[in-house]
Write a structure and sequence with these properties.
The protein has 296 residues and is an alpha+beta fold. 40% of the residues lie in helices and 16% in strands. It has 8 helices and 9 strands.
Length: 296
């Protein structure tokens, strides 16, 4: 897939979902140790663009030997810019063990932490001085387009609806009618007025639904993180203050996810359906892979 920036040594492939599965953007990247900052910035733009559009997994030799992934800190300026890019896009780095000597050079990044599981760092192949990284990508269901139409009350004109219903001479219209006839007349009149004043929209089964772990406190922290980024760009916060806000937000998200899983596990006796629904959503894998090249 062409994402521009030919100076960046990256390759992107869209794994098309089959049946009810969603697409995944899979990337491979190599960063030479002597790569200039302009090329780094071009790659960061690719990451930002693709991570917002769909599920993303990118792997490769990033060559940032000075980064400590336990504390998300680095000694060099370019390494810190890379950490900022990861934080800004809420990407997760899944490799914890050294892949060359004592350094973690080969990374696996994703915008959904649960998308990459069972990651292993094993022995190298042949004369290579880099270790092998093996992992699984768990697929998620594709969002289906619903054909069901529902009333969009957010865009309804209730004043107009009251006006139309209020103009009907109900006493005269219903005089002499049976209960069944009166009901049919009332229903028909209301539906006609409703059609004129309340628009329809397609029902999206996932619209407006938040993950169970995304509570008001996390939403507040995300807002603070976003405001901190704006202040940092305006020079009102130092980089360390902004990165601290990012780390705190990421830590609370991971803690909230873990607490939600504990809550589901402890409450399984009273609510098995919710527990197994959650497990099923995390284990959607298929043996076959869809077409690697679309006709678009």
């Amino acid at each position: 897939m062409n994402v521009g920036d030919s100076c960046v040594e990256s390759l992107w492939v869209k794994l098309k979902g089959v049946k009810n599965e969603g697409d995944i953007m899979l990337g491979v990247y190599y960063r030479p140790p002597s790569q200039v900052e302009e090329v780094d910035e071009a790659f960061f733009k690719q990451l930002t663009k693709l991570s917002k559009a769909q599920d993303l997994v990118v792997m490769g030799d990033f060559n940032y030997p000075d980064i400590c992934w336990e504390t998300n800190t680095a000694r060099h300026r370019l390494s810190n810019k890379f950490l900022d890019c990861i934080g800004d896009n809420f990407l997760f780095q899944k490799v914890e063990k050294a892949t060359r000597g004592e350094a973690v050079l080969d990374l696996v990044l994703t915008n959904r932490e649960e998308l990459v599981e069972n990651l292993k760092v094993e022995d190298s192949i042949g004369d290579s001085d880099h270790e092998i990284i093996e992992f699984m990508i768990l697929r998620k269901g594709r969002r289906e387009t619903s054909t069901i139409e529902v009333m969009d009350f957010r865009k309804a004109d209730f004043d107009k609806l009251r006006e139309l219903v209020g103009k009907v001479p109900w006493e005269a219209r219903l005089k002499g009618k049976t209960t069944e006839e009166s009901w049919k007349y009332f229903k028909g009149t209301l539906l006609r007025a409703q059609k004129q004043t309340i628009p329809l929209c397609r029902k999206d089964r996932k619209y407006g639904k938040r993950p169970a772990w995304l509570n008001k406190e996390i939403l507040h922290d995300l807002k603070i993180k976003k405001e901190s980024y704006k202040k940092w760009k305006l020079g009102q916060l130092t980089k360390d203050e902004y990165r601290q806000a990012t780390r705190e937000c990421r830590g609370k998200i991971r803690k909230a996810k873990a607490q939600n899983e504990i809550k589901l596990a402890t409450g399984i006796k009273g609510n098995k359906k919710t527990f197994y629904k959650y497990i099923k959503s995390k284990r959607k894998t298929k043996d076959r892979v869809g077409p690697l090249l679309s006709e678009e």
